[in-house]
UniProtKB/TrEMBL annotation:
This is DM13 domain-containing protein. Keywords: Signal. The lineage of its organism: Bacteria, Pseudomonadati, Bacteroidota, Cytophagia, Cytophagales. Pfam families: DM13. PROSITE patterns: DM13, PROKAR_LIPOPROTEIN. It comes from Runella defluvii. Residues 55-151 form the DM13 domain. InterPro entries: DM13_domain (IPR019545). Residues 1-21 form the signal peptide.
Length: 151
């Protein structure tokens, strides 16, 4: 009986993530070091910036696709640039940088996830040598939608 209730609870949590049709978007997240912000994708200009890493999203519990690139400008400010990105809508979606897909040693980049092309500033305290996975994470239900490894 206990096993059946656990399975039903997990199934309801996954269905809740799937049935949400409007992404929850709130004010930009803050980290202890700085405020991060979503930038207008049409305003991002890679001219004069160095491409540090890139990766391709792979689906986890939900279909997720697209590419992500990390650029650094002359002032050492880094930006995550999402291209042709697509994932399912869900409640409480976040973008994390983590050491693996299991959310080890993660840092939250933002609590806004947008389909299409977009960019977001990377917090200065992110260590991309170690935190080289970009995760699309449903915080409310602890569900990984998809991930890209930065190489």
């Amino acid at each position: 009986m206990k096993t059946t209730l656990t399975i039903i609870s997990l199934a309801l949590a996954l269905v809740s993530c799937q049935q949400e049709t409007v992404p929850v978007q709130t004010n930009t997240a803050t980290t202890p070091v700085e405020t991060v912000m979503m930038m207008n994708p049409s305003s991002f200009d890679a001219t004069g910036q160095t491409l540090l890493y890139q990766g391709t999203f792979e689906s986890a519990v939900h279909p997720t696709s697209g590419t992500v690139r990390v650029y650094e400008d002359k002032d050492k400010k880094r930006t995550l640039v999402f291209e042709n990105f697509k994932t399912d809508a869900g409640p409480d979606l976040r973008i994390y940088l983590a050491e693996d897909k299991s959310v080890s040693n993660f840092i939250q980049v933002t609590n806004e996830v947008k389909n299409g092309n977009s960019s977001v500033a990377i917090p200065a305290n992110a260590n991309l040598q170690k935190q080289n996975y970009v995760l699309i994470w449903c915080k409310q239900f602890s569900v990984l939608f998809g991930a890209a490894q930065l190489k």
